């Protein structure tokens, strides 16, 4: 980690915790190693940007200068020993490559201020930003032994502190022997070992990185030393993953077991969905090298790192590079910070170029106060135990608001108790801030302190001071001002905009919402509650004077004022946004929030199952044998001629095919009074059937032909068509799943039974290896989502692999190793289940010697662990004592919570006992991990 923001980052994260009011969060640890397979059509496209370093291009690169002390970060946050100097960065001929030049970063033993070493570093911050693509650098490093630390890496351009902005390390060398031992490469040398990494935020303000997991990390150890020769380093970066490789000669090696998965909706990995800038540097000493004193450096100096080129290619169709002169275009008009319906010239897009932060976990989101306008609101309850509160909206890439200080204003709506004193402020990207105060009980800037929504208008000139409006970070910030009330309180903020005061704005036209359900009376409201099968018509006003457009779930669009949704289903739930653009060109919107509740006895057929279709009033089943006419038979008849399969069709309908219908398997209406069969190649509206509830477990079947006909079975069992307004028992049908007997497990296999009974895990072995198969015990379990997580250790991160029910999955490990595993799987009733708390296990090559499940602390026998180490007392109270069998049998002890986060890390330092203060731990279960010559050992402790 080489970020020049390390110390500031720690302080920043202590004060700020990202809220999920804008971005939906997923559980990071369940997604962390979910493997996203390479696209079948993976390909490297054309070069979209490159620098071959024939000259030093100051429009694309900046030389970093100093030892970091000038920005309050001495040693660049890593205890580095050098001062970066301009003269140590230059372009020169490459030795042995006539006519080819490279960027040179030269480390020297020479004095600069208090430093006795100098070196070189460059970055492309605010000049070249890379967003996805295949990035390749050709680099040659000097002899590193011992103490040089070369790196090619990237930082996020987002206007955030590290690690929130994200870090991508394409290559790092110079690792200490201890670090290489930890990564299980004790026979490597400092000149043969190279690694890559990413750094990212974790819940609670921590820092995560992927190199920590030795089972996932695959650092490259070259047969021939890597110094004094060129090697290529690559990342293959796309919206869902980053793959790290090194190309040594004609062979490309992966630096991790699988690509690192990223997700724009996950707060931990979302930094990697935004642009990054490049950095190259050659550090002297530092934490990675294990050398933090001048006399420990013995690498031959001067030492030169050569960068022949950096190239960015299109990768799988992804990749862009933005070049800039460092200036930001000025905003004008009405700029939306947080608003739904107020007309704006431009506005922030949360998750793309803006984020909302709560400072110090001082606020808790609530739904107690509805929005003032639109569908979104910032609504909170304070935590009185903190003694203060604060939050803000930050522009990730800076905004130029220089047009606003003269006549502009910051406007917003707020609903806050009268006895709360608060302040409103803004920040620029140069550590400057300004704010105005709102004392309790006072009317100020238009705010009437009556506990209701109030309008606040603050002249930007009142926020002036030393703020550099040409490059703003926080465009809105709220915080407490002095003592807060003794009891928790709620408040909400909405409709935040900057108005420049110089632009004539076309005023929006008010939109009035109207809707009716099933053709009944009109209702003026934006909250619409429906049941499956209902129809709803939206008819907002005005009726004249402009144009309308609509957007909604499932890519719904329309351009008429009045729209109707027929036979709505749960999938139709969501926000339907009507936009009215008046004659002077200003748009205003109204959002209808639609919820669709399931009707009791709903039926959603499983496309992988077959069903009997029966009319219980006549005790008959529908069947077909290949002729044109379907038939009816006794309700106890079985066989393929009375089994039907449902296939999804457009408009929430289904094709219904008879399993035993050889020539004409598809049920259809022939647009007359009768029903017939047609080959499955027919797919017109006559072959599409909608299922609607008739109550009491019975359903109507209605075709989608032009006049909408309903299936009926008359008293003699003839299938006919009647109008949809007919609702007799003759039109009511039941659907009964044909029972399927799962195949028996293979001979010689072993079965693990899930604790909840949802599934079995069948283990099989053959000459090709060991396999585990997820076998559902309930219909639909794991049908849409199935992820297998496994590892050879219990208390560690588990990589996740996409699997399929009833399909064997090959496990990658050595014979005799114990595999611990669990699943995440979908439920037929919706949602998902996870069995991480009920892990199963088996030994590769033999599945008969283990129990069906193990507890998380059952890693080795108790006797073996007691011979190696002891932990007492257990349960613990104020302190835990860890005693090992002999000096140097273990080097390090870690205490982790059940999410895998490290809470305490201590070294034995040639002693056999370590005492750890545990008084600050909450009651619960924790894991102790020891690392050293005896390997890695784990056990569980309980805090009372």
What do these coordinates show?
The chain has 944 residues and is mainly beta. It has six domains: 43-323, Jelly Rolls; 334-499, Jelly Rolls; 515-597, Immunoglobulins (Immunoglobulin-like), CATH 2.60.40; 611-737, Trefoil (Trefoil (Acidic Fibroblast Growth Factor, subunit A)); 750-843, Immunoglobulins (Immunoglobulin-like, Sandwich); 862-943, Immunoglobulin-like (Sandwich), CATH 2.60.40. It is 3% helix and 42% strand. The chain has four helices and 70 strands. The strands form 17 sheets. Strands 2, 5, 6, 10, 16, 17, 18, 19 and 21 form a nine-stranded antiparallel sheet that branches. Strands 3, 8, 11, 12, 13, 14, 15 and 20 form an eight-stranded antiparallel sheet that branches. The model is unreliable at 1-41 and 848-866 (pLDDT under 50). Keywords: Membrane, Signal, Transmembrane, Transmembrane helix. This is Family 16 glycosylhydrolase. The chain crosses the membrane at residues 28-49. Residues 47-318 form the GH16 domain. Belongs to the glycosyl hydrolase 16 family.
Bin the strand percentage: 35-45%
Helix content: under 10%
Largest sheet: 9 strands, antiparallel
Strand elements, count: 70
Q: Give the low-confidence spans.
A: 1-41, 848-866
Gap between N and C termini, in Å? Answer: 37 Å
Q: What would CATH call the architecture of the largest domain? A: Sandwich
Quaternary structure type: single chain
CATH topology of the largest domain: Jelly Rolls
Q: What are the main properties of this structure?
A:
944 residues; Immunoglobulin-like; Jelly Rolls; eight-stranded antiparallel beta sheet; membrane; mainly beta; disordered N terminus; transmembrane helix; signal
